[in-house]
Amino acid sequence: MVAMVVQSARAxxxxxxxxxxxxxAMIGLTRVGGRTRVGSTTRVGMPWTRRARIDRATxxxxxxxxxxxxxxxxxxxxxxxxxxxxxxxxxxxGPVPELAxxxxxxxxxxTVLTEPRLLDRGDERPDLVVLELGLRSxxxxxxxxxxxxxxxxxxxxxxxxxxxxxxxxxxxxxxxPDPGDSVVAVLTPLDPPTLHGDTSPVLTGVERVRERxxxxxxxxxxxxxxxxxxxxxxxxxxxxxxxxxxxLATGMTHLSAVSGSNVAIxxxxxxxxxxxxxxxxxxxxxxxxxxLVGFVLxxxxxxxxxxxxAMGVVGLIGLSSSRRSVSLPALATAVLALLCWDxxxxxxxxxxLSTLATLGLVVFARPWxxxxxxxxxxxxxxxxxxxxxxxxxxxxxxxxxxxxxxxVSTIAVLTNLLAAPFVAPTTVLGIxxxxxxxxxxxxxxxxxxxxxxxxxLIGAVARWGATVPMGTIGWVEGVGGAWLLTGLTVAVLxxxxxxxxxxxxxxxxxxxxxLLTLALLWPTxxxxxxxxxxxxxxxxxxxxxxxxxxxxxxDSALLVDTGPDPQLLAACLDLLGVRRLDGLVLxxxxxxxxxxxxxxxxxxxxxxxxxxxxxxxxGEADQVLSALAANNIPTYAVTAGDHLLWGDVGQVSATVxxxxxxxxxxxxxxxxxxxxxxxxxxxxxxxGLRLLFTGDIEPGAARxxxxxxxxxxxxxxxxxxxxxxxxxEALVTGVGATVALIGVGEDNTFGHPSRTVLSLLAETGxxxxxxxxxxxxxxxxxxxxxxxxxxxxxxxxxxxPQ
Length: 802
What we know:
Strand content: 15-25%
Distance between the termini: 39 Å
Shape: globular
Number of domains: 5
Mean pLDDT: 78
Helix content: 40-55%
Number of strands: 29
Largest sheet: 9 strands, mixed
Number of helices: 24
Low-confidence stretches: 1-61, 793-802
Strand order of the largest sheet: 19-18-17-16-15-14-27-28-29
């Protein structure tokens, strides 16, 4: 049933995109008298096969009948669907689908289709390399078959250095993919890859340029070192996670990787260079095309890059021409060509965003830019287009962004406007650094240092924007939220002129409506029954990490870990109405537990911080301790046996269970096993609830904790290490917790939480709360029983204590 639903949704999305593209093309081709209109006719026949004719009386092209528009839309839709069927039939031809269902071991030979990506799965399991492979032959059960089948490969780090477009042979096990995947099988290699043949001279040269660019940017500051390869060759492997989060929060992710804007910049620079060098006009398109091909090869012609190339060309046409009759058919042609070439783009959020952003540019950017320029001084008239371009892209892309992030950015237009002047210099200088470094690396480094200035400024804009209050506002999540925002956007665009006219006539009323809207959107504690009355502990949805809040007073709390994302943590604390922290516990110094420190340090008062004495990893530990010291926050390293009190008259108390103050000679603890484990008692409604927080301890440390707590029972257990499989089963089941808390990110690559742990908790009847599925939640107590309240969805369950 799931497969049928996914495939149906894919077919409908493909149908809708193709029909939209055909409609855009025909609307663009039927412009009459400066307006876009669709005419009707009663003439019977095949009007879409006739050429447009000129009306001799008016010298205007005749309108294409509505039947022709519908017919061409159906033709375009049929073309895409037939192309998709042909692709799928070709992919599934041969024995691979059947072998995958049987999970057979085979010998394969294939071509590397995507750049290998290394996934760090933490301390528990080895790293994983992911790539796509186009199988060319498969040998199983004594038979060898020639195939053309795409598969996804999950391999060990020995596959990290296989070259793009290289041919490899290996022994592997096949498995079926998830329903709706573009690949036909999942391949797990059992042996290291064996490479065959030499790479073509073109690909060898491209790889040399890419490698020399990485060398050239090596000495640069962190943000510049990350952004230059991202804009020039699409390599985001050097981007730190905090910069990635900042770019996401500010709507600037399209700048940290190759996008249509980068393609347009490259083409624009090539055309300008042709003008400076006096290249004849008839040769300039050829030079621009050659530059485009070279840029695509440099970035690797994978689907995302080809999509960016097509949309960049269309965007350049749209911005350089005021005639939508030129740019709209170009966009339609690009969409149809891309869908016929790779029908799976219809399921790609990136493809949808690129298409919508380009549509916004060619339809709205020029008229909005002109309208804005009319209200600016003549010297600042160029700001009209500069403001209109990010505004148009943000407006049309917002409904899709809601599906991805669940919120709406209010700062994206401003941050993109501020960063826009630095994008072209970074891209052009980055390309210059790549080319010059192939001749002499020190010269490439010099050019890279010049490009580092605008690249660093892009990063600075993103980091500043991520700290702006109300930079993002929550929105209704899921498909319903996307449709709601789409409806509001269409309504505002349709009624834009009328609204401006009314605002001009009644300025006081307009300002009143604006202020009322801001008041309704501004997040305030206690809205919609949140935080719930009698809450004891809350779990904050901060992605793949831990951040739990224990109430100590009406507007005060104790925070255990900060998660990886300061913005998400700050939003959670605001919703809970936390105005000061009586204590900040950092169980250990891994980024998924301390990365969100900026949400509290320097933002709200922190009475004291409690940390592990294990300074591992040392870099992160030094950074955290320096930040605490710089903000004059008293910091204590706690060990087993320490007793702590917080709140009014010791409302919350805790005993440190781990790590031990003294260890055997030669014994050392790693970061996870050095986690601070706390035995909390929260006094509420005359009763004392017991809560056990276990950080990220591994089985060895967990056995020490179990021995220290022998026979003791708890109401709430914070499951160690995000519910990983590395647990001490006797501790998980022996504490007898009524509620188990797991801080974990949605669709994380670590396999958290493991099925083993969930099964253990299910066997003991423990209610499991997971931030990946339950979002931000709270455990409440009314003096007799525990309850569970979710922030999203309004779930409210009673839990009978055991």
